[in-house]
Structure prediction request, 126 residues.
Amino acid sequence: MLKQYETVFIATPVLSPAQIKEAVDRYRELITGEGGEIVNEEDWGLKKLAYPIQKKTTGFYHLFEFRAEPAFIAKLETQYRRDERIIRFDTFAMDKHAVAYSERRRNNRKEQAAPAAQETTDDKEE
Prediction:
């Protein structure tokens, strides 16, 4: 039975954009390669950390929301621990309320993005 999970990882800030993209692609392929299904993905970019981690004060945040078998989570977290590019991660199982909240949040973002996209196309037509 597939359960829905959300995982956020923080990559070290010394990576180039190509290295960040490669790390994200690696975890995306790991999730989908093990029979998981990515529901949502968000790149939060470079953000300031609440406290220094490994003498670093910033990090690249990335979120995956996905469905997978519960046994897969141990494998995913082992990969995070082995990867020197990842300085922190957190994975949790979403209950029905968290799934509903996440869906509402995604729909609100789409609705807000649609008028902004419409305004830019209107500006180009003028």
